[in-house]
Amino acid sequence: MKTKYLLMAALCGCSMLPAAAQWQRTPTPNDTLQSVRVLDDGRVALSIYAPQAKEVGIGGDIVPWGQKLDVTKSEAGVWTVTVPAVKDGAYRYHFVVDGVKVFDPKSPEASEATAILKVEAKDGDFFSMKEGVPHGAIAQRYYYSKTLKTTRRLHVWTPAGYEKSTEQLPVLYLIHGGGDTDLAWPTVGCAGNILDNLLAEGKMEPMIVVMPNGSIATENLMDEVPLFAEDLMTDIIPYIEANYRVLADKDHRALAGLSMGGMETLEAGLNHYKEFGYLWVLSSGWFETDKEMYAERGAYLKKIAGDFNNTVRALHFTQGGPEDIAYNNCKAMLKLFDAAGIRYKYSEAPGGHTWYTWRNDLYNLAQHLFKH
């Protein structure tokens, strides 16, 4: 019987505010603002919440030449610019707020448009783009999820030279944390540079790294965990194995995830442990006060322990030290693995529940995979 694992977590995501902070925030009109509205008469209304602004306009392809646009400001501080007679098509647009170019903060792409600041040592770091290092490719791919009945996106890193090679490679499926998307590891996670440098230095085996989108919109946050696990097993892995030259057996398949992605790693990895040779759980753990869930999980771990130990080559838990918000949950959870006799490795280093920790995790993780 398939067991549903991850029902609750104390704090599941790296980029989400604590619940208390969310409830304390004063609501604004921006919370429910629809920034783009296509009106029945063919006009398009573009809106932005800017209560302190003195002047708002728009720019981009959508602005008609030589026409004066209707601009209004509501008492609540919402500015609306209406563009007449917009034909079917795609348009670039931005707001101009008191002379400053502002991208639509309510756009679905807004969460991915943030600037990235890299603070590096003078001679570079393991996540730096280095001179003379061959660079792999990070591709943005779309697949149809039968599980979720929609088209979804993922990113795939392939090593330098993959395009002209005929070699089949092992695969690491690498999941981000709650509130992020599949763009997190390629950007703030610096995955491409980390993998390029390790491969060039001969510190890791050639592999393909798949970075899927572990975030799914659900009414209950934790409901996304089993949904993603099903999407991974039913849709993502088959898609990769049908479209890339990969070794499609458990000894050449690894799964890792941070925070909420760690929950998803546990969900998929424990329910389908015969499909993975390597499991890495980064800064994550089951909610320690859920006694009923702990009893259920403990019994399941004891049931699979012998077979798990003979099947999975490596199970590793890492944390960013006591300051990691998942620290106590992980420590409590590991007692269940100890009681069941499941073998694992554990490591921690200062850094907390941050990308500083997880970039280091990827650097260390990649060096231990597929060396059998």
Concise synopsis of the structure shown:
This protein is α/β, with parallel strands linked by helices and 372 residues long. It has two domains: 34-105, Immunoglobulins (Immunoglobulin-like, Sandwich); 115-366, Rossmann fold (3-Layer(aba) Sandwich), CATH 3.40.50.
Structural class, by secondary structure, is alpha/beta
C-alpha geometry: globular
What percentage of residues falls in helices of 4 or more residues?
25-40%
Number of beta-strand segments:
15
**Second-tier CATH architecture of the largest domain:** 3-Layer(aba) Sandwich
Q: Uncertain segments of ≥5 residues (pLDDT<50)?
A: 1-23
Strand order in space, largest sheet:
8-9-11-10-12-13-14-15
User: How many individual domains?
Assistant: 2
The biggest sheet, with number of strands, parallel, antiparallel or mixed sense and barrel status, is: 8 strands, mixed
Topology diagram in text:
Blueprint: H1 19-24, E1 36-38, E2 44-49, E3 56-59, E4 70-73, E5 78-83, E6 94-97, E7 100-102, E8 137-145, E9 150-158, E10 171-175, H2 191-200, E11 208-212, H3 224-243, E12 253-258, H4 260-271, E13 278-282, H5 291-311, E14 314-319, H6 327-340, E15 345-348, H7 355-366
Parallel strand pairs: 10-11, 10-12, 12-13, 13-14, 14-15
Antiparallel strand pairs: 1-2, 2-5, 3-6, 4-5, 6-7, 8-9, 9-11
